[in-house]
Design brief:
This protein is an alpha+beta fold. Among the domains are: about 40 residues, no CATH class; about 170 residues, no CATH class; about 60 residues, no CATH class. Helices cover about 45% and strands about 15% of the residues. It contains 15 helices and 12 strands. Strands 5-4-9 form a 3-stranded antiparallel sheet, with helices on one face. A 3-stranded antiparallel sheet has the order 6-7-8, with no helix packed on it. A hairpin with a 6-residue loop joins strand 1 and strand 2. The radius of gyration is 34 Å and the shape is elongated.
Amino acid sequence: MGRRRDHRHGGKRATTDGFMNFTARLGLGGDNTLAAGRYQPSGGITRQRQALEEMYRTSWVVGRMVDVVAEDMLRGGIDIQAQLDPGEVDQFLRYMRRMGVQSRLTDAVKWSRLYGGSLALILLDGENPAEPLDVGRVSKDSFRGLHVLDRHQVDPSHERITDLGPMMGYPEYYSVHTEQQRAGLRLHHSRVIRFVGVELPYEVRLTENHWGASVVERAYDRILALDSATHGSANLIFKSFLRFIKVEGLRQILAAGGPAEQALTRMFEMIRRMQSNEGITLLDKNDDFGAINWTFSGIYDALQAFAEQIAGATGVPLVRLLGQSPKGFSTGESDLRTYYDTISTQQEDDLRPAYERLLPVMARSLWGKALPEGTTFEFRSLWQPSELERSQIATADAQSVAGLYSAGIITESQSLAELRDAGRVTGRFTGITDEDIEEAEARTAAPELPPDMTRTGDPQ
């Protein structure tokens, strides 16, 4: 229910909107416990760096929240579509792996999710990181990989980007202040790849020094609830079987102390020694012995409910977040497919700009030339086909390529290159080497001539 002010007739009158039942005291404007609920400022767990680090190190749930999405976003890699020579795409992808690009981007996404923000600095030998990046000036063999900095290692400048574009209004420079060997280093925004955990509205973003929020913050209370319930359940095990003895005149014995109390203590020591699974319990005729058994029904359901709320807060299904096996008639396949669609969206939003900045730089460093016009890339699907599906896909690929080759649309070398590229998904045709493709290309360029013909075409 909301409130608004009525300024008609020059006066101010508070009005209420929404469902109300004054007799039953229902509605958010009524006198009931639900209406008393409020959201209060949390104090910002995002700003408590040490607390976040302890949670990440000691809570496996927090660790999974941070790591799983980051690893899944980078796990599949990319497929590059470009007018390149046979084998150059594979060479480029091997170069990316050798420079550790995927690993460092994974780290950058992890720390952005944990702390609310991070940077991946593009390391170029011989260039000043405070100057704007000019891809055309990147020299051969100058790319040295990426250096990851979390939000607590850098200070955004007060200067803002004024150029029209998606980053307008964000910091133009970042100053490194915690790396001893890099203290005071000034980084231009074009040389860093910026990642944010949870994007915030503008006014709130200002309070976070133009960073976002940690993904832990939204699920913080649910994490506490799950951990508290788990430890509480563990403590219940020690009290699951309680035995008691009713001793006649216990108060008098304890009040008297001395030999009477010592005798009582010796009696219970004797009971402890003789009592076992097959033992007996020695008691006085007037004493009474009994046991209380506790049941744990409903505890698992409560723990499961807390876990499901965490999964909902993170957008990661239980089968992936907690490694929990699907139950009932569910196979977990639909949950994973929905989750992978979410990962695909995050890849497009966060990773595509990163790769679009990195690929031209790496091409200049590897080959000393720009990528061909129209070069594109796609993120590989995280959904892994079964062995039967792989076989069917490989058969369809082989038949398709063979048909194109027979029709003269593609050459033998192109056929081999296409089959090897398709093998990244199916695991087939991986034995095709660069040498095989080059030999096929050479045969296409210089076909064998009949024995009675010379290279000029004149008869012998």
